[in-house]
Automatic annotation (TrEMBL):
PANTHER family: GERANYLGERANYL PYROPHOSPHATE SYNTHASE, SHORT CHAIN ISOPRENYL DIPHOSPHATE SYNTHASE
Signal peptide: none
Organism name: Muribaculum intestinale
CDD domains: Trans_IPPS_HT (cd00685)
Protein name: Polyprenyl synthetase family protein
C-alpha cells in the first residue's frame, strides 16, 4: 500500500495533467478553476487505495478516481449556486467569479466528463457494474440534496431522517469510491460490499464531524468562521438533537432565535448544546460510525497493511480539526 501523501500527490498530478479543449473557454475555464482549488481528494484516494488493497495497481483505476473527483466537484459547483455560497476553499465560487449560468453549464459539463472517465475501464466485463454503481450513486446524491432542501422548510426533522439525508448526500459517494476501486481490481462481491460499507460509515462520521466543527471548531484551524450552521438555522445533528431533547424550554428558546443573525445567538446556542449534552451526543455518534467503518474493513481478508491504512483514515477523520 502507498501512503495518503502518495495518493494525494498522484491525484493532484493527474488533475494537473488534464488537457481541456481550448474553446469555448467560458465552459472549460471554470472547470479547470474548480479542480485546481484542491481539497482533501478523499474520494479518489479511497478509490485508488481500495484498488491497490484488492491486488491491482493504482494506474488501473486512475480514470475512475478522476471521474469520481470530477463528479464530486460538479456537485459542489451546483451546491454553491443553490446555497448562494461566496467562497469555496478560500477562493470565490464559480457563480461569483463568473455567474450563475456559467456555474450551472460548467457543472453540467463536469457531470458528463465524469461519466466518460468512469466508464473507461480496464476490462469491458466490469463496465456494466461500474456504471450501474456510478449512476445509482449519482441519483442517491441528488435525492440527498433534495431532502436537505426540504428540511429547510420543516421544523419536525428527526435524527433518522437527517442521518438518511447525509448518507445519501455525502456518504454513499465515499462508499461507491471504495467499491469502484474493488470492482476494478476484480475483488469478490463480499470484499467490495465491505469496502462500500466502510466508505459509507466513514462518510457519516465525516459529515457529523463537520457539523461538530462548524459549531465547536477553532476558526483559525477550521478555515472559516464558526457558527455558520447556527446563524442559518441549518438542520444539523446538533440542532435536531437539541430541538428533540425533551425539554420544551430549550426547544422554545432555540426556535425563538430562528431568523436571527448575531454573535449572541451563536454563543447562546453553543451554551445550550453543552449544557444539555448535545455536543457529547454528537461526539458519540461520530465515534459510533467511525467504529463501524473500522469493523467493516477489519472483517475483510485484505492484507494487514491495507486494513491499517483504512483504519488510520477513520481514526484521523474523527480526530480532525479542519
Amino acid at each position: 500500500m502507498n501512503t495518503k501523501e502518495w495518493y494525494a500527490d498522484y491525484i493532484n498530478q493527474t488533475v494537473n495533467d488534464i488537457k481541456y479543449p481550448v474553446e469555448p473557454e467560458g465552459l472549460y475555464a471554470p472547470i479547470a478553476y474548480t479542480l485546481a482549488s484542491g481539497g482533501k481528494r478523499l474520494r479518489p484516494m479511497l478509490l485508488l487505495a481500495a484498488c491497490e488493497a484488492c491486488g491491482a495497481s493504482a494506474d488501473s483505476a486512475v480514470n475512475q478516481a478522476l471521474g469520481i473527483e470530477m463528479y464530486h466537484n460538479f456537485t459542489l459547483l451546483h451546491d454553491d449556486v443553490m446555497d448562494r455560497a461566496d467562497v469555496r476553499r478560500g477562493r470565490p465560487t464559480v457563480h461569483v467569479k463568473w455567474d450563475d449560468s456559467t456555474a450551472i453549464l460548467s457543472g453540467d459539463a463536469m457531470l458528463t466528463m465524469a461519466g466518460r472517465l468512469v466508464m473507461k475501464v480496464v476490462d469491458d466485463k466490469i463496465l456494466r457494474p461500474v456504471m450501474e454503481l456510478f449512476n445509482t450513486t449519482a441519483m442517491e446524491v441528488y435525492e440527498g440534496q433534495q431532502y436537505d432542501m426540504d428540511f429547510e422548510h420543516r421544523d419536525d426533522v428527526t435524527i433518522d431522517e437527517y442521518l438518511n439525508m447525509i448518507r445519501l448526500k455525502t456518504s454513499v459517494l465515499l462508499g461507491a469510491a471504495c467499491k469502484l476501486g474493488a470492482i476494478v481490481a476484480g475483488a469478490d462481491a463480499a470484499t467490495a460490499d465491505s469496502l462500500y460499507e466502510y466508505g459509507t460509515m466513514l462518510g457519516l462520521a465525516f459529515q457529523l464531524q463537520d457539523d461538530y466543527l462548524d459549531t465547536f471548531g477553532d476558526p483559525a484551524v477550521f478555515g472559516k468562521a464558526i457558527g455558520g450552521d447556527i446563524l442559518n438555522d441549518k438542520k444539523t445533528y446538533l440542532l435536531i438533537s437539541a430541538l428533540r431533547c425533551g425539554d420544551d424550554a430549550v426547544a422554545s428558546e432555540i426556535a425563538s432565535m430562528f431568523g436571527v443573525r448575531s454573535d449572541h445567538k451563536i454563543e447562546r446556542i453553543r451554551q445550550l448544546y453543552v449544557e444539555y449534552g448535545i455536543d457529547r451526543l454528537c461526539r458519540e455518534a461520530i465515534d459510533y460510525y467511525s467504529d463501524m467503518a473500522e469493523k467493516s474493513v477489519l472483517a475483510t481478508d485484505l492484507p494487514a497493511d491495507a486494513k491499517e491504512f483504512f483504519v488510520d483514515i477513520a481514526r484521523k477523520s474523527r480526530a480532525r480539526s479542519k
